[in-house]
Every structure is written in structure tokens, then in C-alpha cells.
UniProtKB/TrEMBL annotation:
Matches recorded under SUPFAM superfamilies: Acyl-CoA N-acyltransferases (Nat)
Cellular location(s): Cytoplasm, Cytosol
Protein name stated in the entry: N-alpha-acetyltransferase 80
Main localisation: cytoplasm
Domain N-acetyltransferase: start-end pairs: 17-165
């Protein structure tokens, strides 16, 4: 697993493709569960439950949609959550584009729109981990970094200050031997 981060810059695509928070489009939860499960298998019920935690205060699931009205097509998904101890950073995970739509630039659009969303919310840095997509993220400007702790859905019921206290490693006392 490689930890990567990128300073947010301004550049994104407009047009028929758009990113919206999933909690504003609950009609897409089931299709989104199928999309995410196509990459990372989990029970459908558990996946739907996790996606339904998307909210304004994080974590937020963003969906990439193409087309108007009834012709809409779900193209991709990304989830943003807070980073423990880094108030200006968000953690990006579960980034996936429909297998039928890969290789067409939608992954880049999804990440650029995710960055734009984060920037509009006042965040300056995105962090992520990847096993197999280092080249893709490097091409987008992400660089290797130290690992961070993803707060996930914990911030919905545990204050960030409490998470920070429990995330610190205990200080080791020097031992002396006689």
C-alpha cells in the first residue's frame, strides 16, 4: 500500500459529466453499491448501509454522472472523509469508474471534480492509499507521503478532538538496565 497526497489546484472539466454528493441522490445508492462492489466485493446490504452514511459533514460519497434526466448513467464513485490530526486534509477512497467506461478519461474527471469539491469546502490537501494505481495518481500530480489516519464515518458520532487523542502513539519511556 502506497500513501500519496496532492496539493489541490484549480483545473476541472465541465459539460454533461458532473459530480454530485450521493446523499442528494438517494435514488442512486443501489446502483452505486453495485458499482463499488464490482471492484471491492462486500455484501450488498453492508455496502448500501455504508453508502447511506454519506452526508454534508463527512464522510461524503461523490458520484460521477453523465447525461440528463432519464438518460443518466452512473460512471464513477469516490468517498471523502476527514483525516485525523490534519484539519486541512481529506482522505479519498473507493475511487472507481465503471469497467465499461475505463480508459476514456473519466477517472481523471472524477478525481478533478473530487478535488474541486474538496477545495470548495475549504480543504487544501487530499490523501489516499493505493496498491496498484500509483502511476495513475502520479500522473494527476499526487506524490508519495507519510501514511495518515482516515477518520471514516467515526466523525459523525465521535468528535475529531477525541479521535486525535486516541490516534497518538504512546510515548515510550527510556528503559535503563543495571
Amino acid at each position: 500500500m502506497i500513501a500519496q497526497t496532492r496539493m489541490l489546484e484549480s483545473a476541472w472539466c465541465e459539460g454533461e459529466v458532473r459530480v454530485v454528493p450521493l446523499h442528494r441522490r438517494p435514488d442512486l445508492v443501489e446502483a452505486c453499491a453495485d458499482l463499488v462492489n464490482s471492484e471491492w466485493q462486500r455484501s450488498r446490504g453492508a455496502r448500501i448501509h455504508g453508502l447511506q452514511k454519506s452526508c454534508q459533514d463527512f464522510p461524503v460519497c461523490l458520484v460521477l454522472i453523465q447525461g440528463p434526466g432519464n438518460g443518466e448513467q452512473l460512471l464513477g464513485h469516490a468517498r471523502l472523509s476527514r483525516v485525523v490530526g490534519r484539519s486541512s486534509s481529506l482522505f479519498v477512497e473507493s475511487v472507481v469508474v465503471s469497467k465499461a467506461q475505463r480508459g476514456k478519461g473519466y477517472g481523471r474527471v472524477l478525481m478533478e471534480e473530487t478535488e474541486r469539491y474538496a477545495r470548495a469546502r475549504g480543504f487544501q490537501r487530499l490523501c489516499l492509499t493505493t496498491h496498484d494505481k500509483q502511476h495513475f495518481y502520479a500522473h494527476l500530480g499526487y506524490v508519495l507521503s507519510q501514511p495518515v489516519q482516515n477518520a471514516g464515518a467515526m466523525t459523525t458520532f465521535v468528535p475529531m478532538e477525541v479521535l486525535q487523542k486516541f490516534s497518538r502513539l504512546p510515548k515510550r519511556r527510556a528503559r535503563s538496565y543495571l
